[in-house]
Amino acid sequence: MQLDLPLLSLVIWLPILGGLWVILAGARRDGTARVTALLISLATFVISLLLWQGFDTTTANMQFVERMAWIETFKVDYHLGIDGISLPLILLTTFTTILVVGAGWEVIEDRINQYMGAFLILEGLMIGVFCSLDALLFYFFWEAMLIPMFLIIGMWGGPRRVYATLKFFLYTFLGSVLMLVALLYLYRQTGSFDLGEMQAVALTATEQKLIFIAFLLAFAVKVPMWPVHTWLPDAHVEAPTGGSVVLAAIMLKMGGYGFIRFSLPITPDAALALDSFMIALSLIAIVYISFVALVQQDMKKLIAYSSVSHMGFVTLGLFMMFDIYAVTSDWQDAAMGIEGAMVQMISHGFISGALFLCVGVMYDRLHSRQISDYGGVVNSMPKFASFMLLFAMANAGLPATSGFVGEFIVILSAYKANFWYAFLAATTLITGAAYTLWMYKRVVFGDIRNPKVAAMSDVSGREAAILGALAVMVLLLGIWPAPLLDMMHVSVEHLVQQLAQSKLSVANL
Amino acid sequence: MNDIALVIPEITLLCFGCAVLLLEAFCGKQKPQASFWCSMLGGIVVLALLASYVPESARFGFAGTFRVDVVGTVLKSFMVVLVLLSFFYAREYYAKREQPHGEHYSLAMFATLGMLILVSANSLLTIYLGLELLSLSLYAMVATQRDSPIASEAAMKYFVLGALASGMLLYGMSFLYGVTGTLDLSELLIKVSVAEDKRLLLTFALVFLLVGISFKLGIVPFHMWVPDVYHGAATPITQFIGTAPKIAAFGMAMRLLVDGLWGLAEDWQQMLVILSVLSMAIGNIVAIAQSNLKRMLAYSTIAHMGYLLLGMLSATASGYAASMFYVTVYALMTMGAFGLIVLLVSRNQENDELQDFAGLARRSPWFAFMMLIMMFALAGVPPFAGFWAKWFVLKEVVQADYVWLATLAVIFSLIGAFYYLRVVKLMYFDEPLRTQAIEASQDLKLVLSVNGLAVLALGIAPSALMSVCVSATLPYLPW
Questions:
Q1: Which of A31, A36, A1 is nearest to A19 (CA)?
Q2: Would A124 disulfide with which of A16, A302, A320, B464, CB 3.0-4.6 Å?
Q3: Which of A73, A178, A192, A221 to mutate to test binding with chain B, by most B CBs within 10 Å of its CB?
Q4: CA distances from A146 to A41, A121, A289, B41 (A)
Q5: Residues of B in contact with A187 (CB under 8 A)
Q6: Residues of A in contact with B394 (CB under 8 A)
């Protein structure tokens, strides 16, 4: 059944080359750019489904491995491979890109070929981040990804786009360059950029802490964790709808992925030593940022803050495991927290993407994101109102939606670690419901106060298809998350086993 | 006979340089293109001659004053290629400005000759000879725009400060000679390492040599000439000064510090650390305040030369390879960035203000993209070649146990990213001031595209150039 194709290379390079082609060919005729971009994104999605179909869920080994020398002199390899942690994120990326291409269909009129091309190139680079097993290749994709996003926000963004995009770029760049120094230091210790060797190398406690902090800056900015989250609301508000969707649905996940792939396995003892710090930051994000979200006047800003708060669950789930183990002495319990974090990442990808698309749909009609400009949208857009209700409920963590699964698993395992972690994390069930549903109430229900709202037309077929696809995913993941959990279970167990072994005893010899 | 065989490329270049001079004098009016093509031909012949003889181990000639080895030949080839590339830009510039320009080629060829000698020097005197030939040609090139007050000022400043730096260099050399009794770098290497009792005097001499080297590279605090000369000179001359001579200056630093004064490595390492940090700091921070692109690129050069020193100060063979890679990639990127300014030049105006780049993406998407490549490459963002240059030197610094220095360097590159991004912002996010399409000849478009795509290609597949640099510097194993 298995075709002998380099599927991972295909799924990375097809969108990148396709994107370049869309940009170059579309310079003459704009009309074809949309269709070509859609076809390329569909083809990429199909390839990623082939990956899923060929994926073996019984092993934690890297699969679909491709390896060849890139820079032979310094043992840098073009080394790709996926496990159960990267596969769901790749599927999320390819799925989301189709929606983003669809969402920009009629809305973007200016330089459409460049818009579509930029998103396709971005897609390829993001998948590259999730597949890289060579630290330098990872860094290569990780940084390169900033360029298309920088241009997307700056070229098609709102009035303060230049400020927002520069802030986005410089913030992320700050974290990344320090990560580069950490990677170079690891190279000095191992003589290779191979991720496996970096994970295996013994390091002293001080080394681990410094490397952990360098990684933390890179990944915490991306997640984003409190207090380095301030670029996110700006970037989200100014980015075009597609840009917001990609930022929220995929780019934020790279921070979480980085923690799982780099911080935890390379510096397990530092993660143990600093875990209460990380948990504190996560809980601040969950509790404090929820209140910040509550007072927002701008819908996009509100969803952006809600993203920061929800991503707090991801970091909480990841760094709780040592506490859980300390209480229950069972690594199975510890693994649950990480699985919860993973489910939360995927689910947040769908929900926040969907909410940004909803705001985009309304913005295209009224050209405002202020909550106060709306009210009574349900009267003119009933179909839209029901879609948005589903996503709002999912954002508030309603059972039977995907939002519930991730938060529930994380809170459940938090309870095993410490009652107060669980208690503080669970406040989100109240505050999350409060800010999401209050916004929904003010925007969708009530009387029509703004005459322009009355003139808003309901969702078009294209918009309904996009929102419908997301609604299916949100419900599917909420009702039957088993396929996702199966996909990553073995890989997460493997990760936990890696973490269970301290690197210190070896380093001190 | 054997001596002559070693310098055949240099002799050929000299002949072609003189031929261009005569050609321009006698038929410059009738056939304005003749000197361009003659110089191109000369460059290609020199390149072929260089490629035809690559010795396995170093060969010495002229009583040990001239040295031909792999690293020298590789550096020379890079320089000649860059000089040829710059001639295309120069021709376009002068055609647009409708200025006569025959002397540009002959002066550039003499400057190139100086660079070749400099890189092949194995004696303090040969170094001085090459350096002066190079510098005097450059002073004259800057001064050729005699009607422009800023160009005259730049030439004056360049000349006076350059003469001062040469004086410093000579002073240092005289001390070295006084202590060791030799001018020959190979002998110097041995005598310096055994002259423990005269360490203080040697270090004293070293300081003066470093002043000379720093001046040529444009390292803080000997950078004062850089912004004025870059801004004042005509764009293709700035482009010329900013590319190949940097490689030559790197070659000179290698010859002096490694071939000659390896015994003082501990001392010059410390000094280079300070110089490098200062350059990265001042260059990157002051560049933010510039409104003229040429001036901004001048400060960016200062910063980049700081990064170049990072590789050298690690004092290992692969550190030199890193610096060599850095300076080559740097020259290629700078060539392209100045090439874009040449593209925008109009008959009466230089158009080198940052504002002139506003909305370039609407006027000419392809060339805006080329500039985008150059800017992100200079900022050190993958997938462009500039990233690998930074990566390579940082790797060597970390290997040499200077993790703090690497951290400082990346922080400064973050600051540097801002002003490169500002150019991208102007091109892509702002509306154009002028809307007319950009006029340029097909040649220039081709050369610019090749230049830009080369920076991209080297970013995706840096392996080949890296291994050339590594194998060329392999003989430089620490003793």
A1: A36
A2: A16
A3: A73
A4: 20, 11, 26, 43
A5: 395, 398
A6: 180-181, 184
Determine the distance in angstroms separating the CA of B112 from the nearest CA of chain A, rounded to an integer.
Answer: 31
User: Does the structure's ipTM exceed the value 0.85?
Assistant: yes
Give the span between the Cα atoms of A105 and A36, in whole angstroms.
12
Which DSSP state fits B256?
I
Cα dihedral value A81, A86, A87, A91, nearest 10: -120
From chain B, the residues in CB contact with A141 under 8 A are 382
Cα–Cα distance, A383 to A464 (Å, whole number): 8
Return the residue matching tokens 């970096």: A198
Q: Tell me which residue has tokens 């290497």.
A: B189
Q: Is there a contact between A369 and A157 (Cβ–Cβ < 8 Å)?
A: no
Residue whose structure tokens are 């991972």? A8
Q: Which residues in chain B have their CB less than 8 angstroms from residue A151's CB?
A: 424, 428
Buried b (16+ CB within 10 A) or exposed e, B193-231: eeeeebeeebbebbebbbbbbbbbbbbbebbebbbbbbb
- Asked whether the CA dihedral A406, A247, A216, A308 is positive or negative, the reply is negative
The length of chain B, given as a count of residues: 479
The residue in chain A having the minimum alpha-carbon distance to the alpha carbon of residue B458 is A71
Q: Where are the beta strands (DSSP E) in A17-108?
A: 63-71, 76-82
Instruction: Pull the structure tokens for residue A227.
Output: 């207090």
The beta strand positions in A180-274, using DSSP E, are none
A139 touches chain B (CB under 8 A): yes
Cis peptide before B221 (omega within 30 of 0): yes
Q: Is the peptide bond before A227 cis (omega within 30 degrees of 0)?
A: yes
CA nearest B248: which of B30, B43, B78?
A: B78
Is the preceding peptide bond at A265 cis, omega within 30 degrees of 0? no
Q: What φ, ψ does residue A493 adopt, rounded to 5°?
A: -55, -45
Q: Which two tokens stand for residue A21?
A: 């082609």
List chain A pLDDT tens, one digit each, 509 residues: 455 788 888 889 999 998 988 888 866 665 788 888 889 999 999 999 988 888 888 888 888 888 888 888 888 889 998 888 899 999 999 999 999 998 888 887 778 888 888 999 999 999 999 999 999 999 999 999 999 999 999 888 888 889 999 999 999 998 899 999 999 999 988 888 888 888 888 888 888 899 999 999 999 998 888 888 889 999 988 888 889 999 988 999 999 999 999 988 888 888 888 888 999 999 999 999 999 999 988 889 999 999 999 999 899 988 888 888 888 877 788 888 888 899 999 999 999 999 999 999 888 888 888 888 888 888 888 888 899 999 999 998 888 888 888 888 888 888 888 888 888 888 888 898 899 988 888 888 888 888 888 888 888 888 889 999 999 999 988 888 888 888 888 888 888 888 877 777 655 44
Question: Cα A388 to chain center, whole Å?
Answer: 21
**Token pair for B339:** 């090439």
Nearest one of B155, B99, B162 to B135, comparing CA atoms: B162
Q: Is A42 an 8 Å CB contact of chain B?
A: no
Other beta carbons within 10 Å of A468? 14
Number of inter-chain CB pairs under 8 A, A vs B: 83
How far A446 CA lies from chain B's nearest CA (Å)?
39
On the CB side of A93, how many CA atoms lie within 13 Å of its CA?
Answer: 29
Is A133 buried (19+), middle (13-18) or exposed (0-12) by CB count in 10 A? Answer: buried
Secondary structure of B396-452 in the HEC alphabet? HHHHCCCHHHHHHHHHHHHHHHHHHHHHHHHHHHCCCCCCCCCCCCHHHHHHHHHHH
Structure tokens at A248: 């929220």
Kindly list the residues from chain A whose CB atom is less than 8 angstroms away from the CB atom of residue B406: 181, 184
Q: Do A71 and B466 touch (CB under 8 A)?
A: yes
